[in-house]
Specification:
alpha/beta; Aspartate Aminotransferase, domain 1; Aspartate Aminotransferase, domain 2; 2 domains; seven-stranded mixed sheet; four-stranded mixed sheet; globular; binds pyridoxal-5'-phosphate; aminotransferase
Length: about 400
Amino acid sequence: MTTVEFRTPEALAEAERWTAHNYHPLPVVVAEAEGAWVTDVDGVRYLDFLAGYSALNFGHRHPGLIAAAHAQLDRVTLTSRAFVHDQFGAFCRGLAALCGKDMVLPMNTGAEAVETAIKVARKWGYRVKGVAAEQAEIIVAADNFHGRTTTIVSFSTDPDARADFGPYTPGFVVVPYGDLAAVRDAITPNTVAVLMEPIQGEAGVLVPPAGFLAGLRELCTETDVLMIADEIQSGLGRTGKTFAIDHDGVVPDMYVLGKALGGGIVPVSAVAADRAVLGVLRPGEHGSTFGGNPLACAVGTEVVKLLETGEFQERSARLGARLHAGLEALIGQGVIAVRGRGLWAGVDIDPALMTGRQACERLAERRVLAKDTHGSTIRLAPPLVVTEEDLDHALAQLAAVLRG
Ligand SMILES: Cc1ncc(COP(=O)(O)O)c(C=O)c1O
């Protein structure tokens, strides 16, 4: 008789022993992946319904993206911005065109792009709007998630993200999400920007009330305040349009992008804005060694090309309707509420049944990977290459988990 040795326990123990405990991962150790599926070290296949928090919108190892990365690996991978490389201009031109903006500034992580937007907004406030030195204010929303740097956690309202990391960066005013009157009341002559997620991801995929984003656009224009849309998780096809804010027919002054921009291969983020805004930066004021590196730009250019076809946005809208219909059908059968757009859903599970964490553990036992947010909410965000059969399979597994 042969004994089968499972590699998962040892791999989990090693990770647990040698890393800081800043995450609480599900007990799955991924070894390979393709499309919407991953395979663990023991050969078990799972359907990925998180997609790296939208970093994998085009699926794991999209062939076109992998080919672009391979080709670039054989040419040049890093120059720093001290020199220009031959992938840089084309990527920036393509991304600016996708955003309908004059220019972009590439960075690496989402948090870096948010920091970039904050610095640009402040400098624009001082140099263009005429705010007195050190007085700039930026309005943000309660329950926001914009990243983990010390400045960004300074305006988080999540105690886990914020406590013990002070002293905090001043200059931020928090208002309730989706409350236009509260934004209006918070605006002062020192307000330089309103920074918000068009759909709040970490908060549980919260879609703001109808008319909020359009009203915010009007208010920002009236009061000479920059409207900054953090589309790091919501953008690049996730909601059925290129940007989540497109659903409201709104164009912000600055887009903040990340995650899927790197095609699930490299960290690529960026801000996009017109010259009147991004043009305030001068040499030496901001930068990043890896920002806009050749590998990142080669992959990013392919990402932009994929989005230019509209195919992924269309898929997300079409399959998203199927996902949401399936989830709505579970209301009253263990699900309390469903929110979201396209292939993105926040699902509130009856807390009397189980926590979000327990739901995700039970889904993982049924070979579907998802992630909880707060309390009894789980979020579903499969790669946009997911098939109808995959969707139906995941919905059936969720229904089975809820039946207990
Ligand atoms: C809306 C939003 N902004 C910013 C970030 C931070 O991105 P990163 O983790 O790449 O720094 C995230 C990450 O989840 C996000 O969802």
